[in-house]
Write a structure and sequence with these properties.
2 domains; 6 strands; 249 residues; alpha+beta; GGCT-like_sf; Hypothetical upf0131 protein ytfp; AIG2-like_dom; G-Glutamylcylcotransferase
Length: 249
C-alpha cells in the first residue's frame, strides 16, 4: 500500500512561515523565554538526509557546544514544525543572533501526519562551525531531551537522545554562562523599552552597545555606557523603572 503524502501550502498563501526546531527550541519554555512565540500550528516531523550534530560554539564556560545539523545520507533528524507569522519568525531570527551564527535553509520535512512541509531551518554558518564536535552540557542536552518528549517525538528518537553523552558543569560555570547569555540576548533582541539619549529618539541596543564599556544584566538594558544620556528603563515586557545615568551630558 502506497502512503499518500499531502503537500501543505498553507504558509505560502497566508504569508506565514514554517520553522523546523530540532535543538533547544523544541522546549516550549525556551521558545517563550527567548522570543515569546505563540505558534499558529505545531506538528512533529522528520527531516531525512540530515544528522543532528554538536559543532556550534556554546556559551562559555558551562556549555561547550550547541546543536546544528549536517547533511548525511541515510540519517534523519526529528523535530517540531512550528507555523509562525512573519513577525514571529523575525523575532525568532533576532533571538538567535540574526545571521551572525546561523544560515537559514529551506528543507522538506515529512510531518508525522504525512504532510509534506517546506520549512525554514537554522544551520551553523560555515565560519562558525567547530573543527570537530564537542560533548554538549547536561543542562543543554536536557532541554533538548525534555523538549523532544513534550513535542511528542518518536519514542525511539527520544531514547537515542537519552543515550547521548553529556558533560557536567560546576554551579559557578553555569552561573557565568547564564550571565553571558543574558547580556548577549538583550543585545541581540534590541528591544529596549525606553533607553534614550538626551535630545534624541530611543536608540537600539545593538547599535549603541558597541560603545559600551561595561554591561551588567540588572534590569537596565546597559549600564555605564558612554553616550547613554539621561538613563534607561527596563526592557520591553518588564515593569518600567528608571535608573540614574552613568554620566550626564
Amino acid at each position: 500500500m502506497v502512503k499518500r503524502v499531502v503537500v501543505d501550502t498553507t504558509s505560502r498563501s497566508s504569508g506565514d512561515v514554517w520553522y523546523f526546531a530540532y535543538g533547544s527550541n523544541l522546549h516550549p519554555q525556551r521558545r517563550a523565554t527567548r522570543a515569546a512565540l505563540s505558534p499558529l500550528d505545531t506538528t512533529p516531523g522528520t527531516l531525512c538526509g540530515w544528522r543532528l550534530v554538536f559543532d556550534m560554539p556554546g556559551v562559555p564556560p558551562a556549555d561547550p557546544a550547541m546543536a546544528s545539523i549536517r547533511r548525511e545520507a541515510g540519517s534523519e533528524v526529528h523535530g517540531l514544525l512550528l507555523r509562525l507569522t512573519a513577525h514571529q519568525f523575525a523575532a525568532l531570527v533576532g533571538s538567535e543572533g540574526g545571521d551572525r551564527f546561523y544560515v537559514r535553509e529551506q528543507v522538506e520535512v515529512i510531518a508525522y501526519d504525512d504532510r509534506k512541509v517546506i520549512a525554514e531551518v537554522f544551520i551553523a554558518a560555515p565560519g562558525r562551525r567547530l573543527q570537530r564536535e564537542r560533548t554538549p552540557s547536561r543542562r543543554y542536552l536536557e532541554l533538548i531531551r525534555e523538549g523532544a518528549r513534550l513535542s511528542a517525538l518518536r519514542p525511539e528518537y527520544c531514547a537515542w537522545l537519552e543515550a547521548l553523552p553529556h558533560a557536567e558543569a560546576s554551579p559557578r560555570a553555569r552561573w557565568a554562562s547564564d550571565v553571558f547569555l543574558e547580556v548577549f540576548m538583550r543585545a541581540s533582541r534590541g528591544r529596549c523599552a525606553g533607553w534614550r539619549r538626551a535630545g534624541s529618539t530611543p536608540c537600539s541596543a545593538p547599535r549603541t552597545s558597541r560603545r559600551c564599556r561595561d554591561a551588567w544584566p540588572r534590569g537596565c538594558c546597559w549600564r555605564r555606557c558612554s553616550g547613554s544620556g539621561s538613563g534607561c528603563e527596563r526592557w520591553a515586557g518588564r515593569p518600567e523603572r528608571r535608573h540614574r545615568a552613568s554620566r550626564r551630558q
